[in-house]
Design brief:
The chain is mainly alpha-helical. It has helices at about 5-10, 20-25, 35-45, 50-60, 65-95, 100-125, 135-145. The protein has one domain (about 35-135). The protein is built from seven helices and no strands. Helix 3 (about 35-45) packs across helix 4 (about 50-60), helix 4 crosses helix 5 (about 65-95) and helix 5 packs across helix 7. It is elongated.
């Protein structure tokens, strides 16, 4: 009597089976191993003001790449410089006469606009896969955040 069970008819050849390439590799220790996800994370770091949170998170992780750390340090340095300038100009504007008050607030608006435009320009450079670099600020960020 012949059996109709296909498993009983022939032994299986394990060498002929194909395995999905991701299934054979162990899971990476870092979920942001893929390049598009790293770029997206770096874009979040360069968001003005709010990018401080992902930048701090990136610097606190032990598995961050050197590019992630460099961009995070740059984003933190830019944010801290902007915050210092904004605070000093706003505080100074409140302590002076009307004419100087208006000029300091105008300068404050220029500094804030410059910070936002610089962050947007860095995001565009990152998106185009160009080097994200601000000449004077990179040395400052490497000195204090490394």
């Amino acid at each position: 009597m012949s059996s109709s069970n296909p498993l009983d008819s022939e032994p299986l050849d394990l060498d002929s089976l194909t395995v999905h390439p991701l299934a054979s590799n162990p899971l990476p220790s870092d979920p942001l191993v893929e390049q598009p996800l790293q770029r997206l994370q770096l874009l979040f770091c360069l968001v003005p003001v709010l990018g401080v949170i992902p930048s701090l998170w990136t610097l606190s992780r032990p598995h961050s790449t050197s590019q992630q750390k460099r961009v995070s340090r740059l984003a933190l340095t830019l944010a801290l410089l902007w915050l210092c300038a904004y605070s000093l100009l706003t505080f100074s504007a409140g302590q002076t006469s009307e004419i100087l008050h208006l000029r300091l607030l105008f300068l404050d608006a220029l500094v804030t606009s410059g910070y936002f435009v610089l962050c947007l320009g860095l995001m565009v450079r990152l998106w185009k896969r160009q080097k994200v670099d601000v000449p004077g600020v990179n040395q400052l960020s490497n000195k204090y955040f490394s």
